[in-house]
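quick one, 254 residues, struct below
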Amino acid sequence: MSEKHLQTGDDLPSYSGKLRLFAMRFCPYAERSVLVLNAKKIPYDLVFINLDHKPEWVFNFSPKGTVPALEYEQGKAIFDSNIINVYLDEKYPEVSLQSSDPLRRAQDKMLVEQFAGAQSAYYTAAFNAQALQPNMAENYHKGLELLQKEIEARGTKFLHGDEPGLVDYTIWPFLERFEALPLLGKTEFAIDKSKYEVLTNYMGSMRSVPAVKSYALAADTHAKFTESRIKGDANYNMLDSSAVCCMRPRKKKE
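---
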């Protein structure tokens, strides 16, 4: 699979007839939908978008040019990861990722909402460090503590149960990126195993899930992309090898 991000002037790839997700490789919101598609084993095509120099046609699928956007029929799309993921779970119910209990579904949504404070603190720490306030690290750790308590209270391997569900795939992309913060010099945002043993065990379990394992990136990779974006030249194609060709070594002159 090519990990090249298409940009202004690039043509829209031909439609194969499968679902098609427009995403950005380092976007946590797009990753949410990738994980759901993977977990449900739905065939799909993935098209990466350069969000700084967007191809003109992306606005036909997402009015604001945001990702993810899901093309469910040729030329027809829905956008926003939460909308996409609920649609996928209801449209393809063979592998259900939401609880059948209305109360538990509500509790899952509340947990995601309460965790948003930690996500907001992450974005400031990663991309706008000069705006960091002491309470942001506090809010970040409150989010982690809340998540750890919820994992303990539920008493299951994953938040959804014995297998991960929509709530897990919604939260995970941020936990994956949180681990890059100490590498960016934000040691106060480290997830200390001595304090977060239950949470780090949960994170280890999530990394082993096939739907996650096939797409997750290492903390240092996220850190490198973040650094490039901070410098004003986001290296969207840092993982792309599609243009690399194997050249035969030149013969030495005798």
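Confidence is low (pLDDT under 50) at residues 244-254.
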